[in-house]
Amino acid sequence: MLTDEDLVQEIQSGSQAAMEVLVKRHYSSIYSYINRKIGDRHTAYDLTQEVFVKMMQSLGAYRNNGKFAHWLMKIAVNHCLDYYRSKHYKQNHTQTELDANVSDDKSNVWDLFHIQYQREKAKQAVLLLPEHQRDVIILNFYHDLKVKEIADMTDTNESTVKSRIKAGISKLKQILLAGDDGCEKRKQI
Description:
Blueprint: H1 4-12, H2 16-38, H3 41-58, H4 68-85, H5 87-92, H6 109-128, H7 131-142, H8 147-154, H9 158-178, H10 183-188
Helix pairs in contact: 1-2, 2-3, 2-4, 3-4, 4-8, 6-9, 7-9, 8-9
């Protein structure tokens, strides 16, 4: 199996097939990050497509001085930042519900509803975090990236990433423990 770097070299030589392999290899990871970050699967789909367009446009500048996946994730992180700064986002900011991907036939309906409810609460809590904390929480817990990797992707130092993770976890705990009676508290956090 070819490495990402091998595929990049083939793409730079004009191989369409290598581009398709590289996109298929990383598509789900990039889409998952953007979907968790944005909270809208349709917008996440569009932004994911744009990230891969940016990747193709930037491949000439890619220098093999790290993992390709991290370089690509950094493009996704920056693209999400650009999206949040965009006029389109500011005018059309909405949130959609998280789709449940539960298919356990042995569970009863109430268990499925409870799982969906817990997932939705967690998603909404993450979306309530300030953007800088949301980024590090998603990258650390959903994508299993290390503090150093997150620091590289977000152009911050490691101690800042650690403090953002700690503060984000603390705020998530406050939001989730506030429950339904704490709706006003959650808006203030």
